[in-house]
Amino acid sequence: MDFSVKSGNPEKQRSACVVVGVFERRRLSPAALQLDRACGGRISSLLRRGDMDGRSGQTLLLHNLPRTLSDRVLLVGCGREREFGERQYRSALESAIRVLQDTGATEAVVYLTELNVKGRERDTYWCVRRAVETAEETIYRFDRLKTGKDGARRPLRKLTLALSSRRELAAGERAVREGAAIAAGVRLARELGNLPANVCTPAYLAEEARALAKSSRRLKVEVLEKADMEKLGMGALLSVARGSRQPPKLIVLHYTGGARGAAPVALVGKGITFDSGGISIKPAAAMDEMKFDMCGAAGVLGALKACVELQLPINVVGVVAASENLPDGDASKPGDIVTTLSGQTVEVLNTDAEGRLVLCDALTYCERFEPEVVVDLATLTGACVVALGKHASGLLGTHAPLVHALIEAGRYSGDRAWELPLWDEYQDQLKSNFADMANIGGRDAGAITAACFLSRFTKKFRWAHLDIAGVAWKSGDQKGATGRPVPLLSQYLLDRCDGAGPAARRRRARAGD
Ligand code: BES
Ligand code: MN
Ligand code: ZN
Question: Relative to the CA of 325, which ligand 1 atom is closest?
Answer without folding.
Answer: 11
